[in-house]
């Protein structure tokens, strides 16, 4: 038994003391290099509610939460939203900040909160599962296959729930937003739209070579949120937290060019002057790119009760955008 698998089983024993899991099985998934460790159900047996599950991808133990909305009965295919936490956070944080569970019940979609790969900092973080990250750029020196992890979750949820394959979406904040950008690029054949908040399409860790997400194979609707006062992922790019970030303009231009949108946006400014909305329309297959700039906004989930008051709700606007953009 190799060291990585021993580590996986050790972590499982530790986590199981905090999060009891019933009916655990191990079975091979569609990828030879991945094995699932999770509770297996037939589609008809899953009911509305909250779940916490484990999965093994590429011999790594991963975990995720998900919420099935009130009224789900497996008879009608429903959308699914993957909501990715920030670097150094976890799925529970993302669930609290975004309040996507409430939106899920109101609008009838499944929401999944994956934990990134574990970044070991100390025994407390190990026991409590508090420190997770994403391999959102290839120059981070992480070997976790986070793209494969999310792809596996997409396939798995299509097996256990009645998911509308034309309405699968990804959002994320901070490092999760960077990961959403990368997933949008690498999974544009499956994903209908993405919504990054406070992220970037590329940059460099320390003095490593700059990385930028690859060119997507398909057009993809994108809605972006960013605070102009963000000190961790600077709006205008540059150095912060040991990273040389690409700017919001560069991130937006990447998708405008790829989607073949009109490069001249429609601009709307709120009465307060604090919210500037730029909409780039006319893209291929009905795609568009929308940027919400919060002039006094920092590194935060806008509209969340855990952050300063804001006149917009990112969660509401993200779902409105997703609802308007099924896969074409």
Q: Give me the side-by-side strand order of the main sheet.
A: 3-4-6-5-9-10-13-18-17-16
**Mean of residue pLDDT values:** 86
Total individual domains: 1
**Counted beta strands:** 18
* Secondary structure tally, helices: 8
The stretches of 5 or more residues where confidence is low (pLDDT under 50) are 1-37
For this structure, the CATH topology is Rossmann fold
Can you walk me through this structure?
- The chain is an alpha/beta fold and 328 residues long.
- It has a single domain (3-324), classed as Alpha/Beta hydrolase fold, catalytic domain (Rossmann fold), CATH 3.40.50.
- Helix content is 26%, strand content 29%.
- It contains eight helices and 18 strands.
- The strands form four sheets. A ten-stranded mixed sheet has the order 3-4-6-5-9-10-13-18-17-16, with helices on both faces. It has a four-stranded antiparallel sheet with strand order 12-11-15-14, with no helix packed on it.
- A hairpin with a 6-residue loop joins strand 1 and strand 2.
- It is globular and about 50 Å long.
């Amino acid at each position: 038994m190799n060291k990585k698998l021993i580590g996986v089983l050790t972590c499982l024993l530790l986590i199981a003391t905090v999060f009891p899991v019933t009916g655990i099985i191990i079975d091979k998934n569609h990828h030879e290099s991945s094995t699932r460790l999770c509770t297996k159900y037939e589609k008809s047996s899953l009911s509305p509610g909250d779940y916490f599950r484990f999965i093994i991808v590429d011999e790594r133990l991963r975990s995720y939460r998900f919420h099935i909305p009130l009224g789900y009965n497996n008879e009608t295919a429903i959308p699914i939203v993957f909501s990715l936490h920030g670097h150094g956070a976890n799925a529970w944080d993302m669930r609290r900040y975004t309040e996507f569970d409430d939106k899920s019940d109101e609008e009838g979609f499944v929401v999944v909160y994956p934990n990134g790969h574990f970044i070991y900092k100390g025994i407390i973080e190990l026991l409590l599962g508090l420190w997770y990250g994403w391999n959102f750029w290839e120059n981070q020196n992480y070997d976790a296959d986070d793209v494969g992890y999310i792809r596996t979750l997409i396939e798995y949820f299509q097996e256990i729930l009645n998911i509308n394959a034309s309405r699968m979406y990804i959002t994320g904040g901070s490092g999760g937003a960077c990961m959403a950008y990368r997933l949008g690029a690498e999974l544009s054949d499956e994903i209908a739209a993405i919504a990054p908040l406070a992220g970037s399409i590329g940059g460099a860790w320390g003095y490593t070579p700059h990385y930028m997400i690859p060119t997507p194979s398909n057009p993809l609707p994108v809605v972006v949120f960013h605070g102009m006062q963000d000190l961790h992922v600077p709006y205008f790019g540059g150095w912060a937290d040991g990273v040389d970030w690409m700017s919001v303009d560069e991130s937006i231009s990447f998708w405008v060019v790829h989607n073949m949108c009109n490069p001249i946006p429609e601009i709307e400014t709120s009465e307060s002057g604090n919210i500037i909305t730029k909409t780039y329309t006319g893209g291929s297959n009905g795609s568009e790119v929308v940027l919400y700039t919060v002039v006094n906004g920092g590194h935060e989930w806008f509209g969340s009760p855990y952050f300063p008051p804001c006149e917009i709700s990112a969660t509401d606007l993200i779902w409105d955008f997703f609802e308007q953009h099924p896969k074409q």
